[in-house]
Amino acid sequence: MTRLVSFSAVCFAFVSLAACSADDGGSSLRQAYKVDPAAKCDPADTNCAGEDPTVPPCDPADTNCKPPPPVSTPCDAQAVKSDESCKTLLGYTWNGSTCTELHGCQCFGPDCGSLFKSAEACKEAFGSCVVPDWCGETAQELATLLAEARSCNIASAGAVVCDGTVVPTTMGCPVPVASGSSKATIAYLDLYKAYAQKCPLPVPACPSPEGLSIDCVQGADIDGLMGACSYVPAPSTGEAK
Question: Which pTM was predicted?
């Protein structure tokens, strides 16, 4: 909130002070400035900008006026840098998003005295500033949904347990699912769409599905009658020689 205070208004409000003079320049303006109670921040108001109302606004023409310095936040990067002339580990520092090592022969900056001796100490100090790993957490959720969507019963002889639907994955290569209309597949595709818009996707060399069919396969780590829809070599139709 910016408040403009005219020179004449200040003089009028404080007539008991020494008479104002145009020759006084900006010094009289700052001496006569008083806090407007309406300009103060309510401590309970988290939306208040928090400007210091005890400091009057600077006149652009007044080169002697010094505005208050910007207020730093607890999650700002530490003001440190090194000369990088050697590889000595000087400590660990917060760069605004994560804790990193600081290497060099000498540290420069006002926060050099606040370097951490270990990464754990740095993370503990700035733990509340770490942005949650949405991509990592969502990838795990997608893996759970995909496993459910691919699940099939290998004992369903003669039944269509894998309808041929193929879906993209966070690993880059598409895989078959049991049904394109199942709740698990629909939920997976909806979440994958959001994931693909925000998170990096690998572009690996995926095997060509040519010459492959889709079937319910029991994996080495799957017990019982359940399997997963997977690519398998297509059965040969040629006559044995």
Answer: 0.46
